[in-house]
Amino acid sequence: MDSGPVLSIDIGGTKISTAILTREGRLLAKRRAPSQAQEGPRRMIDRILTQARETVAEAALPGGAIDLIGISCGGPLDPVKGIVLKPPNLPGWDGTPLRDLVAAGLGLDASRAHLENDANAAALAELRFGAAQGRRHALYLTMSTGIGGGLILDGRLYRGATFNAGEVGHQRIVPDGPLCGCGLRGCLEAVASGSGIARRLAERFDSLSPALRQAAGSAESITARHLVETARAGDACALEFLEETNRFLAQGIANLVFILNPQIIILGTIVSHAGDLMLAPLREKVREICPPVLAADLEIVASPLGRRLEELSGLAVALDGGPSGPR
Amino acid sequence: MDSGPVLSIDIGGTKISTAILTREGRLLAKRRAPSQAQEGPRRMIDRILTQARETVAEAALPGGAIDLIGISCGGPLDPVKGIVLKPPNLPGWDGTPLRDLVAAGLGLDASRAHLENDANAAALAELRFGAAQGRRHALYLTMSTGIGGGLILDGRLYRGATFNAGEVGHQRIVPDGPLCGCGLRGCLEAVASGSGIARRLAERFDSLSPALRQAAGSAESITARHLVETARAGDACALEFLEETNRFLAQGIANLVFILNPQIIILGTIVSHAGDLMLAPLREKVREICPPVLAADLEIVASPLGRRLEELSGLAVALDGGPSGPR
Is B174 in Cβ contact with A297 (below 8 Å)? Predict the structure, then answer.
């Protein structure tokens, strides 16, 4: 049964999505629920299994069953063993054999289930259904709370020695810069991720423009979204702050271009939302830094998958089939 | 004749080496001569061909002929077309079809000759004969006048979209730092390569220790070698300067570890020469920056190939057989 429908599971820090899709990406059923990550892995996995069974039932499949499962989850994790290692957004999950628990709970052999970290899963989704289709060398950068990366090199996902390649958010951009969630200073993530942007905004809240302060309400509640929306309305202060952010991000992208010489760089959430407010300056700045042999034909785009990314990530993980190494 | 001897050609800015080797790496004959790069490609290639014929004759091969050629040359170049593009150390070579000229000049079909840039060639040599043997993910960093990289990912050379991946020397380490040969500021190459170290030493020559100034003679003649030798003798000033250099280099290596999660990082010339004066602090600093999941099993070593690198590079290029794309 190598053409049957696929169960896609996306486990995030705030929501869990389960979806049934054809292998071509057509959505047959989908459910979303809050993660309630504070409950820990045992109760969360019970809820994931219940939600998955309901989604399967809703899809009313002819044979009644799915034949492949793909799970996207925050890393670090071991895709060969199917084990979640130490995800910062899922407290208490250290060492949870997520893949086998899900497969067993749904009556499938573990060989039919695959687990991948969210950035890698998104890169696989872009390769199969999005902006990386037909590209041999593509980098996907998550741009939400943190900055992670999924590297498509020579046509396939590159995972690295311990499956943790793509931690592009922890290259250092500003020596002695702001503290990052990882404990280092000046990481790309500390200055250009959602949380990094919010922190930088909060620190200088009193000197921000009235429009930006009013949009946010308070230093505690200001986010990258307030920045983008106020910049879009033409506020000079927001535009200047965004320009600084673009400069940091362009340097991080340029480093990756020097090292990996990709055809395309695909940027997630924040850049998708900001569109040309970020894309146009990023393209320009990367071309200023990198020589034509690297930058002339380089594409820098926002992910075209939008909200479909969460269901297509798990599907792409299932279809990829995981690393070729022994389980 | 898929087991015959190989002609290895290494074309550098200062010397040309030609060697005949068995496929297992046994040296049968070798010649070295000054490059005289100022003569331009036409006369240089004539001399390369003459030197190659002499080396072949010296090897006194049973059948009288080599059946494979591997050429290592400064990049950027196009290994599919066999063309040298714009090498900074070979003036006037832009667009020279080096591979085909060499093959034709020696009476071989162009399909028996392969061309690769020096950093990639060195990485291939490490993979086949050196410290990367048996490793799936290995990074080789040249550490001489400039800093280049050759990336072995998933067991093979990763070249990137336009064959220019591995330009690890141009990631930015010090914003607004010293000017690099590439025109940017604060590149890893500008602070930690041979030329970068020499420039930093020259700039503060008058405040260097007497031992260091005496070893070098003048600001114009000071090199990384003077630094390493004076540091080895225990000079505090040299040790402090080397410590700063190690910090820059460790940050560049850590960025690569975050992005590529390799098993081993192999460092060339300067680090080979400095040994544990650089290796021990580099290992320590990279472990301080990168988390255990990336750094616990990471090896950081000096290239074990020494002077054999130049002949083994071309051999490894020949045996690799070049990118699989169309010629």
Answer: no
Q: Cβ of A199 under 8 Å from any chain B Cβ?
A: no
Give the mutation candidate from A258, A286, A293, A324 for the B interface (greatest B CB count, under 10 A).
A258
8 A C-beta contact, residue A48 and residue A11:
yes
Q: Distance between CA atoms of A62 and B323, rounded to whole angstroms?
A: 46
How would you write the pLDDT of chain A (327 residues) with one tens digit per residue?
567 899 999 998 889 999 999 999 999 999 999 999 999 999 999 999 999 999 999 999 887 689 999 999 998 999 999 999 988 888 899 999 999 999 999 999 999 999 999 999 999 999 999 999 999 999 999 999 999 999 999 999 999 999 999 999 999 999 999 999 999 999 999 999 999 999 999 999 999 999 999 999 999 999 999 999 999 999 999 999 999 999 999 999 999 999 999 999 999 999 999 999 999 999 999 999 999 999 999 999 999 999 999 999 999 999 999 997 544
Centre a 10 Å sphere on the Cβ of residue B288 and count the other Cβ atoms it contains: 11
Task: Specify the CATH class of B133-304 in words.
Answer: alpha beta
The answer to whether the Cβ–Cβ distance between B258 and A170 falls below 8 Å is yes
Sequence-ordered alpha helix ranges (H) in B234-326? 236-260, 269-274, 276-289, 292-295, 309-320
Q: Out of B149, B160, B263, whose CB is closest to A161?
A: B263
The residue ranges of every structural domain in chain A are 6-119, 131-304
Binary contact (A259, B258; C-beta < 8 A) = no
Q: Which CATH class is domain B6-124?
A: alpha beta
Q: Give the model confidence (pLDDT) of B127-165 as tens digits.
A: 999 999 999 999 999 999 999 999 999 999 999 999 999
CB contact under 8 A, B158 and A160: no
Q: Identify the CATH number of the domain defined by range A131-304.
A: 3.30.420.40
Q: Closest residue of B to A255, CA-based?
A: B171
Kindly give the residue spans of alpha helices, DSSP state H, lying in chain A.
Answer: 41-59, 98-105, 118-129, 188-192, 194-203, 210-216, 224-232, 236-260, 269-274, 276-289, 292-295, 309-320
- CB contact, 8 Å: A172 with chain B? yes
3-class state of residue B137 by DSSP: coil
CB contact under 8 A, A171 and B258: yes
Q: Which residue of chain A has the CA closest to B298?
A: A161
Cβ atoms of B179 and B149 closer than 8 Å: no
Q: Is the Cβ of A185 closer than 8 Å to some Cβ of chain B?
A: no
CATH class of the domain at A6-119: alpha beta
Tell me chain A's radius of gyration from C-alpha atoms: 20
DSSP state of B96: B
Give the predicted TM-score (pTM) of the model. Answer: 0.96
Predicted complex ipTM: 0.96
Taking an 8 Å cut-off on Cβ atoms, the answer to whether B184 and A289 are in contact is: yes
